[in-house]
């Protein structure tokens, strides 16, 4: 599969991870991405006998994802290095037919394995695919202003969402479903995976307090755009607070007009208007 490195799939992955690093969201080995790749994008690169395929056992069964291909970041790998040496930092894995392990088909050439958050990613892929057949990407990063807001803003899903909706006019259009928030949990555990997946029934983005954002989407661009919009709004909030706080904002009635104008449905019960 050596030629896979030249594929548009790997190129796009490298470009997005570079952008994320440049935005300051993925210091050191912070952050991780997994992207389900449709088989037709893999087939042209598949060679009959891939030598020395490593098999890595999964901590629980993911039968729902059997035979799926995923391009994922590696554990301990730095986002800043992905574009320089993708075959070292990222890997193409295939979930086994029985869902109990994955095989590394390409990448991770120096012995790495998939991100330690892979179990969380897989649980969330399963959850999102149940509600959205087009779902493909899970992206986690340490978006600076969003993390800061988890210290200074009330950690209530409705309040947090509405503050962000009001910081930039088009936010409501990008995430009308709002943001889920889980309690602080040790990363890489089954607990954080389960709590996040529970939220992913209703939300495409979940805030991990004092840690970062966990986002889902149909492709890398869309998922990056979702996180970028949330983070931009959190950045505006940071400036507003440093300028002395909110004196006026977009009213709930105006948000409703916006939703109607862009044909989106805001999270039920969030806008205080007679609907
Ligand atoms: Zn993290």
From TrEMBL:
- Species of origin reads Staphylococcus gallinarum
Q: Which gene encodes it?
A: rhaD
Question: Which first-to-last residue range defines the signal peptide?
Answer: none
Q: Where in the cell is it found?
A: Cytoplasm
> According to the record, how does the cofactor bind?
Binds 1 zinc ion per subunit.
Domain Class II aldolase/adducin N-terminal positions: 11-238
Active site feature: 117
The main location class comes to cytoplasm
Name its pathway: Carbohydrate degradation; L-rhamnose degradation; glycerone phosphate from L-rhamnose: step 3/3
Cofactor(s) the protein requires to work = Zn(2+)
Enzyme class, UniProt record, top EC level: lyase
- Which family is annotated? Belongs to the aldolase class II family. RhaD subfamily.
Instruction: Kindly provide the name given to this protein in its UniProt entry.
Output: Rhamnulose-1-phosphate aldolase
For the ligand (Zn(2+)), the binding residues are 140, 142, 211
């Amino acid at each position: 599969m050596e030629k896979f490195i030249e594929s548009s799939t790997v190129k796009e992955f490298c470009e997005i991870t570079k952008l994320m690093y440049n935005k300051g969201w993925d210091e050191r080995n912070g952050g991780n991405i997994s992207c389900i790749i449709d088989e037709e994008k893999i087939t042209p690169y598949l060679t009959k006998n891939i030598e020395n395929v490593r098999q890595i056992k999964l901590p629980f069964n993911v039968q729902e994802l059997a035979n799926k291909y995923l391009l994922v970041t590696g554990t301990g790998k730095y986002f800043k290095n992905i574009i320089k040496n993708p075959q070292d930092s990222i890997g193409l894995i295939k979930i086994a037919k029985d869902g109990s392990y994955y095989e590394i088909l390409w990448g991770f050439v120096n012995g790495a394995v998939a991100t330690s958050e892979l179990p969380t990613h897989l649980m969330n892929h399963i959850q999102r695919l149940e509600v959205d057949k087009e779902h493909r990407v899970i992206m986690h990063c340490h978006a600076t202003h969003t993390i800061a807001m988890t210290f200074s803003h009330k950690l209530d899903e409705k309040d947090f969402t509405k503050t962000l909706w009001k910081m930039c006019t088009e936010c409501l259009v990008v995430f009308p479903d709002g943001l889920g928030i889980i309690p602080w949990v040790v990363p890489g555990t089954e607990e954080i995976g389960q709590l996040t997946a529970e939220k992913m029934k209703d939300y495409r983005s979940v805030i991990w307090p004092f840690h970062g954002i966990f986002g889902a989407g149909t492709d890398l661009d869309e998922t990056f755009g979702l996180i970028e919009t949330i983070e931009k709004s959190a950045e505006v909030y940071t400036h507003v607070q440093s300028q002395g706080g909110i004196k006026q904002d977009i009213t709930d009635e105006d948000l409703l007009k916006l939703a109607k104008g862009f044909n989106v449905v805001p999270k039920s019960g969030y806008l205080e208007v007679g609907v």
